Amino acid sequence: MNFVRLLVFGFLFLSVVYLCVSLYSRSVRREKLEAEWEETRPEGIHRDAFVKEGMKEYEASLRRRLILLVYVIPLVLVGAIIYFVN
Fold first, then answer.
1. How large is the average pLDDT for residues 52-71?
2. In sequence order, which residues have a C-beta less than 8 Å from that of residue 68 and are 6 or more positions away?
3. Which residues contact 50 (CB under 8 A, 6 or more apart)?
């Protein structure tokens, strides 16, 4: 029963960490896009459209998928510790 409790609370904790890291990464990317638009000021492209297009590219990027390692790395470490201790 303790193992199930560990899994449930661990998953909830990792979900909160994932959410925080994901929101932080998105906000940093959005700020960079807004700064890039301010520097270049491309003709005929509205700021919101520029940022929206950049965020679309971010959604398909490797960085977004790497954030999922927040779940994988602790799971592998706990599994390895349990395996080597037993």
1. 93
2. 18
3. 33, 36, 37, 42
Radius of gyration of the chain from its Cα atoms, rounded to whole angstroms: 19
The whole-number pLDDT of residue 81 equals: 93
Q: How many Cβ atoms are within 10 Å of 17's Cβ, its own excluded?
A: 14
Instruction: Decide: pTM greater than 0.85.
Output: no
Tokens 């929101």 sit on residue: 23
Q: Tell me the C-alpha distance between 12 and 78, whole Å.
A: 16
Report the distance separating Cα 32 and Cα 43, nearest Å: 19
pLDDT for res 21: 96
The answer to whether 57 and 70 have CB atoms below 8 angstroms apart is no
Q: Which helix (H) or strand (E) holds 86?
A: none
In 3D space, the residue among 54, 71, 72, 62 whose CA is nearest the CA of residue 19 turns out to be 71
